[in-house]
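Quick bug: 5-methyltetrahydropteroyltriglutamate--homocysteine S-methyltransferase output formatted oddly.
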Amino acid sequence: MSDTVKGPFRADHVGSFLRPERLKKDRLQRNRGEITAEELWEMENEEIKRLVDKQKEAGLKAVTDGEFRRAWFHLDFMKEVEGMEFVTLDKGLIFSGGTETKAEGAKVTGKLSFGDHPVVKEYKFLHSIKGDHEARITIPSPSMFIFRTVTDEEKKFYSSESELFADLVKVYKDAISALYDSGCRHLQFDDTTWSLFLEAEKDKDLVLSGGLLQARGLDPQETLELFVDTVNEAIADKPNDMTITMHVCRGNYKSTYASSGSYDAVSEIMFKKLNVDALFLEFDDERSGGFEPLSHVEREDFYVVLGLITSKFPELEDPDLIQNRIEEAGEYLRKEQLCLSPQCGFASTEEGNLLTEEEQWAKVRHVISIANDVWK
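Here's what came back:
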């Protein structure tokens, strides 16, 4: 199969995998104080080793730790940034079908800094077992910090969103430097905030489309520019041999979603101004619109990973249909700049999507089989 020199690869994945039942029980034991943090770390190591072996056996070229050490794809990273704390909320976020998440979040309690963040230790372990494969670590995009709980206490430290995001730039620069020094050559940002800007009238009551910006008193266009500038500044000094990609997510909780809408509303700024090396984009159903926005890509060294295979349900897509959709996308962006993956991870939170591990791996193998046929 014709492939990219380095990730993303023709057959790729977003990063999170279903948590083994044993690991869920171990985490509950830790929460009850029945085992130590060190004991949980070793148990997580065992399960991550098994997961990495399964990724290799399936034929994936990039391996992740499956986010096995996290309950949330974003909060676990955010709460370990100095100046952030975990917080219990009055209610969770509302996803499609009225599904409500756990009522948990994070708040600012001081000036932000990267500090001695555990993600570095987590990556070092993954690096130690990657073998000849690419080891990819996933962290939330800087923009995800907009989902924090805003308190009066925060105003003691930050008078505006732009001031807070300026410190976030330093946090992410330090993160990139520390991960690179640990051997990381592929870092992935996960970001649901772009969905704030997608036109989705029919889903206006869902969490991402229901006035979150207005509740913060933020202007949509100014905030979009702030997000782009923050990411670009954060990665501006990355080494040339380090790839930084971004997954643009529409929400993923127990096989439900949080927003709809095509990429039309953000396509020009996304493809012309955002300086990441590739975007993982959801295109698995009608919620995502068409491929026309891909025509705004101007860089020949930029890749788009088409999330055409759903991670939310076990049914396998018609291979011919997926190949046809890739060909359709190729009308707007060279096929050499396209890759294939599931539309999201299989477990953006520890609850996971509604399919079995066996069905999960069938999805992964399906991606690889189709990609092998398309990029021969």
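Actually, after a second look the formatting is fine. The mean pLDDT is 92. Closing.
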